[in-house]
Amino acid sequence: MLRSYLLSSSAALLLLLLSGCIKQGPTLVLGLVVDKDTDQPVPNAEVQVHAFSGGGSSGGGGYGPALGGPYRADADGKFAFTFEADRGKTYRLDAYGPLGHFSVDQGVEVENGRTNRNLRIPVRAPGWVRVRIIDEPPTANEGQIIVGGFGNPGYSSGLSLMQDETFVRYIGAHIPSKVSWIIKDYARKTEIEGHQDINIPSLDTVTVTIRF
Question: pTM above the 0.90 mark?
Fold first, then answer.
């Protein structure tokens, strides 16, 4: 009976070792979510835990989906919670605010199985770009206006030239960027390019007006 018990215990331990799921123990994290640019607390932010997964002999790997949570910070941006960490893994905290704040600088790494105090998770505040496209004076020419940028050089949106249009796009605050556009007039066979540099304050909106 004892021999059988020892064998089964050894097998169970071997499986845990092979799976890499030996628990390090409760990991306590306490800290503050702050605006990266103003260093002010971000109320009611959500904190998430991510575990790093290696990429094997070829390298690579990265942080996987959130584990549990999200864990809510209070009205003063303070958070405190525990999670179970596996031995040998690396964990990172990220945070997101209800107004659109998002984590920057690769989050904050924590030590497994320990109390991590005075953590500060920096987040970037959002900003918005309002684009107003105005047909002035009104024309009946066929064509298209292509608008792109907003902090993402690969982003663009095409609209007909035969109508006024207004739309809003989200972008991180305090990120120097530009809005670019190309006005294509099919009847006249012309193309006009333009751009406007933007740098949006926290939680603010910048308007870009395009006339054709």
Answer: no
